[in-house]
Amino acid sequence: MKVLYVTSECTPFVKTGGLADVMGALPKAVAAKRVSVRVMMPLYGTIGEQWRSQMKFVKYVYISLSWRNLYCGLFEMKKDGVVYYFLDNEYYFKRGELYGHFDDGERFAFFSKAAADILPELDWKPDVVHVNDWQTALVPVYIHKLYAGHPFYEDMRTVLTIHNIEYQGRYDWALVGDIFGLPESFVEDNTLSFMGGISLMRGGIECASAVTTVSPTYADELQYPFYAHGMEGVLSNNRHKLSGILNGIDMALYDPKTDPNLERNFGPDTLPDRVYNKLDLQKILGINQDETIPIIAMVSRLVGHKGLDLVTASLDAIMDMSVQLVILGRGDWHYEQVFANAQNTYSGRLSANIMVNFGLAMKIFGGADIFLMPSQAEPCGLSQMMAMRYGAVPVVRETGGLRDTVHPYIPETGEGNGFTFANYNAGDMQYVLGQAVETYHNKEAWAVLQRHNMGLDFGWSDSAAKYLTLYRNLTGKR
User: Fold this and answer.
1) Fold of 2-248+461-475
2) What span, in angstroms and rounded, lies between the C-alpha atoms of 355 and 360?
């Protein structure tokens, strides 16, 4: 079995979100099951010299995209049992940010077309090409639709994983030929058409051999308008090839026993040492050093669907619980300003860190007591898994992967691993937060809950096995 993952980002090379973590961990987990695995991504200008120095130039080709004939360099490196391919075009990828450019559609159309076109140039032919989100959703369109009947691609299978349906790669239908190099008939036959324009995500869903999402609950939720952002009809029509496979985390990377970001390493057997990280976090953030007061933390993009409206509406009620609140993230200006202003109101008790900082994030996981994720929608979520791994107890809304990974704590039996609420409203969130704070003050029960959570296995082995079963079912190969 040979599997190629095509992705717009991947740790440790570049990262903006959870997709990079998945692509940094899943290929390694599948390779560990004696599968030949390779990963293909753009050679961004932001990829550091420590990685570039390990790359080997393989060849260059020219990629035809509509009227353009474009250079594409191919670089290769090996790491952790996986071969990584980097596709180079400085015009498209030597930029300060991965996304957010006026020509993102053209940039990732080039990358997708190059990923499909360069396959015959490799010394290795994949049985499965696994793509991710709208940035690479055109790969199945090129392979199965544009190149239909081509002998090289005839027995190749594709998988599209939807990490977040909210981002759909929507463009004007007039760009189909000029930008994406596809015939207008692909709009007329509903391969790409969507809400008066086109959606690259729809193209991937329609053309891929199989479609997955990042949790079983999210796969079910995508049948409903509230979660599907207009794509519910497309997904319902393709329900026969849709499944949900829960993401995992890299258990070696995210390990409080070895994490160099922590003031004091600890594990389930040395849980009392965790308090040194709490005191260190309070000192770094300039909030009152007090090991007895519970710290509630959020490490999140500060955007609406993460439940920030519930938090901002509840700030006074939350702070009345005699807690400290720590926020880390960037996002909508409105939320950034609300938290920045609240920091002045609750001096010494609230810390608003309007930034993206991996090291600080790990310090928060290792020092906070309660981790809040009141998401309106959460396809999978990795932060709640990291929080439990580091001994921070999650408070979440029952949606997507949060529902699949966090189960209500029952004090009478000790069952469950966190605190949950179903209805999307501030009152319910405040109620379960209050339950968490009350339980925190029962030190014996809280320590038992922390140790239980730290012992949970959120690794990729089981999920990788499910992906491998999917690949085998698609190809008939072992």
Assistant:
1) Rossmann fold (3.40.50)
2) 10
